[in-house]
Amino acid sequence: MSQTETSVTVVVDRTALPDKIAEFEEYLTRIRAAAAEFPGFLDSDVIHPEGTHRYILVFRFASQQQLDDWSASKPRCHWVEKIDQVVEEPTKLITLTGLETWFYAPGGETYTPPPKYKMAIISYLAIAPTIMVFNLIFGRFLVDIPGYLAIYITAPFIVLLMTYAVMPLMTKLFQGWLFAKAGK
Questions:
Q1: How far apart are CA 102 and CA 110, in angstroms?
Q2: Which tens digits make up the pLDDT trace of 133-153?
Q3: Looking at the structure, do residues 48 and 15 belong to the same domain, yes or no?
Q4: Is residue 45 assigned to a domain?
Q5: Considering the domain boundaries, does residue 183 fall inside one?
Q6: pTM higher than 0.85 for the full model?
Q7: Is 20 exposed, middle or buried (0-12, 13-18, 19+ CB in 10 A)?
């Protein structure tokens, strides 16, 4: 399986105590450094909405097993224990796998994936043009290759483009509609 098929994303939502922000940020730096050295670690991000003490941490691991190993590790437990002393409320944690990671809300107001029909529409609006542009640019190199083989050659590139470029952009562009609260 490829990395995009098995990777796991964990989102951790924490609000630092106002008088402990420097301490919290130090612990945050250290837990991210410890995670970066752990087997299976792919990357991490921090979203810090302006004017708040809220920090949304996003960790990505290559597999559920590697995430589980990290979650049970001594370094993680050590830093979580430290961080728990400087946060306002209990940690909110969610694990995301598959396509739902494409629809992580920028700004992190919600971690509930949008309704499936919205994900399908945005996926279609992203995939169709991505394939068309890719074929316009690279199609001439694939013309002498049998169709099924051309698909196997292009699919990894399309998946990578969708995961790391197109879907983050589409999610930002359509976040108001994707993550609209019911009744709005």
A1: 14
A2: 988 998 888 888 888 888 888
A3: yes
A4: yes
A5: no
A6: no
A7: middle
